[in-house]
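Study this:
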Amino acid sequence: MTNHTLRFFTVREFKDMLSHESEVLTGYTKTMDEKIKPVADVWLKSGKANLCTKGITFYPIDKHYINGKLNSYFGLGASPMPYEFIDIGAYLLHLELIICNADKNCYEYLLNWLAHMVQKPIEKPEVAIVLKAGQGTGKGTFVDPIGKIISAHFVHLTEQSQVVGRFNSLLENKVLIFADEFFAGSKKHTDQLKGMITEKTAKIERKGVDSIMVPSFSRLIMASNHENIVSIEKDERRYLYLEVSEERKQDHDYFEALRQVIDNPKFTGQLLQFLLERDISNFNPRRVPQIKSSW
């Protein structure tokens, strides 16, 4: 396990990977000759080695081991930093005026939803964000800084099969999934999405490996230019449906100025601080603002 990834090895692969390392002195014979062994063998038999024989799990909390299992959570990708409104204001206005199309209720909900993700990552909101957005409207500009905060537990997917296909290892240990240019108008795929949004566990399947059940804490943002991105029933409460404004579509001067704000090395930490400070004590994620145009 590194700061950003989790890699799996067989015992043989582990030994081969460390075969170039100098052998380790483990003691002496009666004639005072040195006893040496490969470093991998020494580590595998050491009582000081961190062994998790019960397997791997995922909980987005700062604990390395949970119930005898290795926690595959690496933490956030940024540290909170002090900010003034001028530091993050352009981004927040982009969310309000463009992403939420100047709908104040949706804007407040979206900010609360994002704050909920960093303040209460082990509590699934059971609501996904759906963006009806064309190219060049700024949906990526919205998601990019959030993805940097979530870091190793964020994934940007551009193929439908990566989201609702059989082999879905890319979804493992994720807190935020961005399904870009996604369309799931069929009932089958919509039902799969409902499970991803609300279920507390998920089945992860890799090619050639038995499927496993793991805890699920993922949030989902979907974006597409399709009229019906998902099949939304009239009483559905699993989606915040946003029709992204095209007012700034292909406005290169606007996005260049916004990018200068977002690309500031301090911006991600400042945005994180803003989200951590936001009061969500009265926020109920399942009370979703309804948009007339979504039906």
Remarks:
- The two ends are 46 Å apart (CA to CA).
- Residues 11-71 form one domain.
- The chain has a mean pLDDT of 86.
